[in-house]
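FW: tagging you since you asked about this chain on Friday. Here's the raw sequence from the shared folder, copied in full. Didn't touch anything.
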Amino acid sequence: QVPLVESGGGLVQAGGSLRLSCAASGRTFSYYTMAWFRQAPGKEREFVAVISRNGGSTDYADSVKGRFTISRDNAKNTVYLQMNSMKPDDTAVYYCAAARTSGGSRWYTRPGAYDYWGQGTQVTVSS
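HL: got it, structure written out here
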């Protein structure tokens, strides 16, 4: 088990910034690829960003590329999502997720590839 707890969500104006955090319990955090997903009302959960186990590799959804940055601190068992130049379309519940194994092209974009999920944190961007 890898309990995940997100924090840092809230209300922000368009053009503003927020930083999400996801804290994990246990001593195996560095074994997991970590990602952020989001889900807006009436829409499917969608991939936002992913970071490799050692933090050396990242990837982003086209919709957030250049605006969002994912990072991790394995010593603190925490993954972050820095969100800048935010838009109303970024409004959603944001979830962090952990995957122990990997496989297939762009496997990390599929919610079903992840073993553990946080409870989510609401992000609302006003226009």
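FW: The CA atoms of residues 4 and 118 lie 5 Å apart.
HL: agreed, and The first strand starts at residue 4 and ends at 7.
FW: great, closing this out.
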